[in-house]
Design goal:
By secondary structure, the chain is α/β, with parallel strands linked by helices. It folds into 2 domains: about 70 residues, 2-Layer Sandwich (GMP Synthetase, Chain A, domain 3), CATH 3.30.300.130; about 70 residues, no CATH class. The chain is about 25% helix and about 20% strand. A 4-stranded mixed β-sheet has the order 4-7-6-5. Strand 6 and strand 7 form a beta hairpin. The chain is elongated and about 60 Å long. About 25% of the residues are buried. About 5% of the residues have low confidence. Bound molecules: zinc ion. The site of zinc ion has 8 residues, from loops.
Length: about 160
Amino acid sequence: MVKSKHTREQIFDLLSAIPDPEIPVVSIREMGMLRDVFVTDQGYEIIITPTYTGCPAMGIIEADVKMTLEIAGVKPVKVSLVYDPAWTTDWMSDVAKEKLRKYGIAPPLHSSCNQDVFAHNIIQCPRCHSGDTVLLSRFGSTACKSLYKCNDCKEPFEYFKCHF
Ligand SMILES: [Zn+2]
């Protein structure tokens, strides 16, 4: 039987260093993907909720979690992907939203959104803060983001979509 030596807080601290594979300026913890850590006598279980179902980054995150903990001598580790409740942009910290903006991605406007966001909401340019922006494509570099263009500074930028 394994006697777990690390505390839940230590595991959270270790995993806080893991960046989101798609947006390396924010961590998986800041994004709200790191949901929970269970420490039992049998080992460690890490609960991860993907930002989007089918996000190609999930395999990378799982591997990063396992590698980070292995290096720290934490074992055995089980990574569980939980899809219910679904990830929402509510779980993203304000720090994460600010980091997104600095990175050039407009952070999500709402937590629970709908298609109306494309029709009625003004997505602010993360560079010059102009509200004069236009949607170019609902899908940017990944399904999680939409591609916009700013009519003021003429720069394209990505908007991190809400979950729907
Ligand atoms: Zn702009």
